[in-house]
Design brief:
The protein has helices spanning 2-10, 41-52, 56-72, 81-92, 100-117, 121-124. By secondary structure, it is an all-alpha fold. The protein has one domain (35-124): Orthogonal Bundle (Rna Polymerase Sigma Factor, Chain: A). Helix 2 packs parallel to helix 4, helix 3 runs antiparallel to helix 4 and helix 3 (56-72) runs parallel beside helix 5 (100-117).
Amino acid sequence: MTFPIQHALLHPERAPGTEASLDFSKLLSLEFRPVDEARFPMLRLARETMLAGGGAPAVYNAANEIAVAAFLANQIPFLAIPHVVEHTLARLAQSAPIDLAAILALDLEARHLATAATGRPDIIHHKS
């Protein structure tokens, strides 16, 4: 992961890599470990969203887009993103839209709620 991160941070410039290049002519091994959901709360929220079904995925997506945009605009810290998403999900995920118009209305409501949450210190600085 160091190369993609370095490339994203330095783009369009290139710098020497911090690790040796991959040699695909040699046998490679991959090691997978369980994900620490405390360190990666968005994964936990995504899993809960999938299990909830209904309108939850639309709410998750809308809230995430708003929270990430707020982070990119320096309005909230990076670690506030899951708090904004969780706050929005807690209020809207129970909805089960029956058609496209209902999904679009839920998306808009989630965006409004998430936008409001980005300005609330009690949400963006929540301690888990």
